[in-house]
Design a protein that fits this description.
The complex is a heterodimer of chains A (about 160) and B (about 100).
Chain A (H helix, E strand, L loop, with lengths): L5 E3 L4 E4 L3 H20 L16 H29 L4 E3 H22 L15 H22 L5
Antiparallel strand pairs in A: 1-2, 2-3
Helix pairs in contact in A: 1-2, 1-3, 2-3, 3-4
Chain B lengths: L16 H8 L2 E6 L6 H12 L3 H14 L1 E7 L1 H13 L4 E5 L1
Antiparallel strand pairs in B: 1-2, 1-3
Helix pairs in contact in B: 2-3
The chains are: A mainly alpha (about 160), B alpha+beta (about 100).
Chain lengths: ~160, ~100
């Protein structure tokens, strides 16, 4: 059985064991996600949700104040993710950045793939098949990270 | 979060009764169902941001998932704006509404 990719060691550390090909894939995804976030492309619409749905004026004020810090935060998480991707151990802060980065990657890729509520298993003949497989990998890793972050007392 | 979240400057003016009434209505933060964010992730974020127990966060997440949305916090406008911003930091679909 393959070792678990992300595992909490103690209150402050997580053990990381990713296949080199998975690391490279995640690196590429990070770059792609960051460029969508910085451009504010349609695939990044879930990164910048509309807060005031019924008041364009209030939304404009809210966006003016939050857009830049929001972009900075996502950029920071994605960059911490990249710089700690080849480590075998993560701190709690790094793991937290990973959570943000993995979620951003799922939000951008999932939006590009137009993921639906009851998404069916990907069909091999679908032109987006590879995208769905990568999306499932991100879901798998994020689900594992959530479980391990909640397992505070292990170690 | 870098920098501070400022609120819209309030221009001094004479408040008419209708405006006072309008300002008094409580503000709410609503989280909407989204096909991408994991259910376990939504629960984790609600616990982390608002200090909710696992039970309460789970209950709110189920409400979001089954009813399409849930009010996760309420209060003054400045507070709910900050709450919504923090939820946006985590990529949750949060909106601000007034009763």
């Amino acid at each position: 059985m393959a070792p678990q990719e992300i595992k909490r060691i103690d209150q402050r550390r997580f053990k990381i064991d990713l296949h080199p090909q998975v690391r490279q894939l995640l690196l590429d995804l990070k770059e792609m996600t960051l460029s969508h976030v910085e451009e504010g492309s349609p695939a990044a619409k879930r990164i910048y949700p509309i807060a005031y749905q019924s008041s364009p004026e209030m939304e404009m004020d809210f966006e003016r104040l939050t857009r830049e810090p929001l972009t900075d935060l996502h950029r920071q998480n994605l960059n911490i993710f990249e710089s700690s991707l080849s480590k075998s151990e993560l701190s709690e802060d790094e793991a937290h950045a990973w959570m943000g980065a993995l979620n951003d990657m799922r939000l951008v890729l999932g939006t590009a793939l137009d993921i639906a509520e009851d998404q069916e298993a990907p069909d091999e003949n679908d032109p987006n098949y590879d995208g769905y497989v990568v999306y499932d990998l991100l879901t798998y890793l994020q689900g594992m990270l959530i479980e391990e972050m909640q397992a505070k007392e292990r170690g | 979060m870098t920098g501070s979240l400022q609120t819209t400057p309030v221009i001094e003016h004479i408040a008419f009764p209708s405006e006072i009434f309008e300002d008094d209505r409580p503000w709410k933060v609503v989280v909407w169902n989204d096909p991408i964010n994991l259910m376990s992730y939504v629960t984790w974020v609600l616990q982390r941001l608002f200090g909710y127990s696992l039970e309460k966060a789970h209950q709110l997440m189920i409400e979001v998932h089954t009813k399409g949305k849930a009010v996760v916090a309420s209060g003054e406008r400045e507070k709910v704006e900050l709450d919504a911003y923090r939820l946006h930091e985590y990529g949750l679909w949060a909106t601000i509404e007034q009763d």
